[in-house]
Structure formats: C-alpha cells, structure tokens
Amino acid sequence: MPRTSYADVVTDWEQLGSSLATNVTDLPNLEAYRVELVGLLERFRALTVQQGIHKANFQQASKDLQEVIARGRKLATFLRAGIKHRYGNRSEKLVEFRVQPLRSRKRVRVEEPEEPKPAPEPSPSPAPATGHPI
Description:
By secondary structure, the chain is an all-alpha fold.
C-alpha cells in the first residue's frame, strides 16, 4: 500500500464528509459515521496544533540545554584551574578531581645497538692456472 501524506488523508476525509452531508437523504444510515468522521477531523487538527507546540517546546528545551552545557563547561574549566592553583599542577590530589597531574616522562634507556658483525669475506676463487700459451 503506498504511503500517503496527512494532508492527502485529511483532504480525502473532508471531501468524503462533504459528499455524505450533501447526500444525507440518500444515505441516512451513514450519518452517524459521517459525524464521527467530522469529529476525527477536528481531533486531528487539535493534535496537529498540539504537536506543533510540543515541537516548539522541544526546540526551546534543546537550545536551553546547549546553553547550560556551554556554561557548565566554562565553569568546570574555571574550577579545575582553581584546583590546580591550590594543589599545584604536579599533585596526585588532582586525580580526585579528574584532572591529569603533570608528570615527568619516564626516561627511556637507550641501549647502544650492537655493532653488526662483519660478514665473512668470500674466499678468493682459485686463480686460473698459468700455463703455456697455446
């Protein structure tokens, strides 16, 4: 079944309700259902308005959350700077506040590489025999 938009559904319901209202004398047994359809249309419109209000509120709440997070990050940075100032930037107490203390790097002991052993020299190939020239 193909998907249809809300607008298409509402337009269809409005046309159906209008046609039923015009022909109420021919279709009196469907009048109660037409009235129910009109009620559903009104409910749909009210829910659409409510959805728009919620969407606007959601967007405002998202904006407010972003502002709170930005202010909180600035404040946390300021507080951590104050903590470093109080305890010093090398104190292990900083770990308690989730601040990485400044630590000296471990010195890596550089070992002198072994000198490569010289490759054995290839033995000289036997010299050609000197003989009488032919």
